Amino acid sequence: MAALDAIHMQPVDLTQAAENSLHAVVHIKSTQESKTQTVTVRDPFYDFFGDIFGGGRGGAQQRQVQTPEKVGFGSGVIISKDGYIVTNNHVIDNADVISVKLNDGREFKGRVIGTDPSTDLALVKIESDDLPTIPVGNSDALKVGEWVLAVGNPFNMTSTVTAGIVSAKARSLGVYNQGVESFIQTDAAINQGNSGGALVNARGELVGINSVLYSPTGAYSGYGFAIPTSIMTKVIADLKEYGAVQRAVLGIKGTPIDDDQQMMPEQIKDKVKELGAKGGGVLIAEIIDGGSAAGKLEVDDVIIGIDGKRVKNFAELQEGLAKHRPGDKVTLKVWRNKQEKEVELTLKNAQGNTKVVKNAGMEILGAAFREVSREMMRQLNLGFGLEVTGVQGGKMGEAGIRKGFIILKANGKPMRSVADLEQVLKEATQSPDQVLFISGMFPSGKRANYAVDLTQE
Description:
The chain is of the alpha+beta class. The protein has helices at residues 15-24, 46-49, 89-92, 229-242, 266-275, 314-322, 374-380, 394-399, 418-429; strands at 2-5, 10-13, 25-32, 36-42, 60-66, 70-78, 84-88, 97-101, 107-109, 111-116, 121-125, 147-152, 160-171, 183-186, 198-201, 206-213, 224-228, 252-257, 281-287, 302-306, 309-310, 329-336, 339-346, 367-371, 386-391, 406-410, 413-414, 435-441, 447-453. The strands form six sheets. It has a seven-stranded antiparallel sheet. It has a six-stranded antiparallel barrel with strand order 12-13-14-17-16-15. The mean pLDDT is 85.
């Protein structure tokens, strides 16, 4: 496998980079097991015959349904000899069982250390040692036109290598809702099953995690996208140490501007002309009270740099911020009053402070739960719910929740299983409010609502 070195007109040998990478890229199988759920369905005969059995249920019936087993496949990259593996969050999301198969055929059970939906990254651990790894390179040093290899398991096949070049950097696609996006775009073929695999440079260094296939057909059509290691390195370090990403936010609302103003609204064009801003950047429209930018930045400032690196759009600003934790000091370069100005500020998290955010496990609630029995659902005319079977202090005890309470919803989501509560708890501990709003009822029929404070010292 070779490509031409345009400077010396000599072939660039990619075989060593491919050989080293293949051994450190794994195949991941994620399984969501079949589960029994109780659902409420309408009696089709109720409209014709009424409540002939006197149940007083208004035509509603509870039925047990079996959900099908779901199996997904993807790739992962071994980053440490003792078995830490980076992959995409969407590869292992909601999996009950994770199976990891190495290039040499060995299989291991995977354990999730932490996930970050905002960047679509996840950290998985297998129990082994002396495993092959890929050295982590500097994605910031990548240049458009540089050769890269995409390594993964497309279409559930064994390890496959494709070659291409870096087509663009700092791409934002809008595929993650309010997530961090600053993709490396490549024309190396990335297909289904490549997700979580490695993007490596000609020296065999990991520079990205393959993540997004941009195609109208679901198969490769010339565009693939990878999460740069500049974002990955800090996210994985946080997941390993805290179980949750320590994400710094600037606390602004704004709009990207660039020299090509064809797609910008007329109002923004006029504002850019008035400010005399050139060369792109992020125009600040609002400063969030209590945020990092409060008292430091101003409305109509244009952010044009962070940590000495040029900023032309939101993706580049997000990538710069993603390298930092709350409490870090950063230097921003802004365009203000028709001149450049440097502003130093201390970054905060979404809660407006610099405290460490930990991924809370169920133990923080200090309670035990089980799915409501069919008999209780029949008696209380319920379709689902979680019964609190015991409370021993913890956050639920502090909120006043007692044994016997039936949780119907948490943060607006129906609670059909303990796994549902675990997922909502995980999301809540990483939200700005860090509160679990619980609604439900007691066996007596009395309804109640509680706010469970999840903040940790």
